[in-house]
Amino acid sequence: MSPGFQGRPRSAEPALPPGQYLTQDFPVLSAGPTPRVPLETWEFVISTESGAEFRWSWDELMALPQETATVDIHCVTRWSKRDTGWQGVSLDTLLEGVDTGARYAQAHSYGGYTTNLPLDDLRGGRAWIAHRYDGGPLPAEHGGPARLLVPHLYFWKSAKWVRGIRLSVQDQPGFWETAGYHDYGDPWREQRYQGD
User: Fold this and answer.
1) Which residue of 21, 30, 74, 124 is most buried, as measured by CB atoms within 10 A?
2) Where are the bilayer-spanning segments (predicted)?
C-alpha cells in the first residue's frame, strides 16, 4: 500500500438504492384527480379467490390495533425520503383469519387505480393500511384518508386512496404494470420497468 493512501471516506449515511437521490420534500405524483372520500362512507374490503369478503368501516379500522412505522420510501421517479413516520393497521392484522390459498394480491383504490403484489410482501410486518403521516391525518394528496404502505418496494406499489385488496392464485398486473412498469418493483434491484 502506498504511504499516505487513505481511500475514499465513507459516509455515515446508509446507502440509497441505485439511481435514487435524497429529498427532504414529499413530492405529490398522481395519474389522475385526487379522490375525496368521506370517512362515513369509506370502507376497506379484502376479497379472497373464493369470493369471501372481509369488510371494515373507518371506525372498525380505527378500533383495530394500531402500529407506527418509521421507514424510508423510494419513488420510481428517483427520489427517496428517509425516516418517514406513519401510523396504521398491519396487513397481518387484517389478514388474520382470512382463509386463502392465494399467492397474489391486487390493491384497488378509490378513483380506479390498481397495483399488484405477491401476497407474501403484505405479510411479516412489511405492509400497513396507513392513515396518519408525520403525526397528523394522512393528507388526501398523499393518499388519505388511507393508503397501502409497502416501503420495501417502489412507492407506486403503496396504492393511494386504498379501498380493498383482491386475493388471487394468479398474478394480475395493475395500472402502471400494464403500462410497462415492473411487476415487482424492488428499488434495490432497480426494477423500474419490465425487463429490469
Assistant:
1) 74
2) none
